[in-house]
Amino acid sequence: xxxxxxxxxxxxxxxxxxxxxxxxxxxxxxxxxxxxxxxxxxxxxxxxxxxxxxxxxxxxxxxxxxxxxxxxxxxxxxxxxxxxxxxxxxxxxxxxxxxxxxxx
Length: 104
Fold this sequence. Notes:
- The chain is of the alpha+beta class and 104 residues long.
- The protein has one domain (2-101).
- It has 4 helices and 6 strands.
- It has helices spanning 2-7, 11-16, 53-57, 83-91; strands at residues 22-25, 30-36, 41-44, 51-52, 66-71, 95-101.
- A 6-stranded antiparallel β-sheet has the order 4-3-2-1-5-6.
- The two termini are 23 Å apart.
- The model has no long low-confidence stretch (mean pLDDT 89).
């Protein structure tokens, strides 16, 4: 019940994601790397080592479009990448779309 209470509309992202997945907030053109435990999902971003999922996805708007990707191969230095590098990985099919979420 704690997950449902804390994440509300974003709980599907918590349940479907895994460690090292990449979560993209298309509204802010930011991404984070998943660090998940049994109680919380945190994201490592360029700006912060640990940001809660709820804070990251609702940063610009409750209606932000969120996508979760899973790397198909080990990607070195992902933490140093820029948003356009992530877009390139998507175009090259090196990361797989797992989930799209947008609140209505």
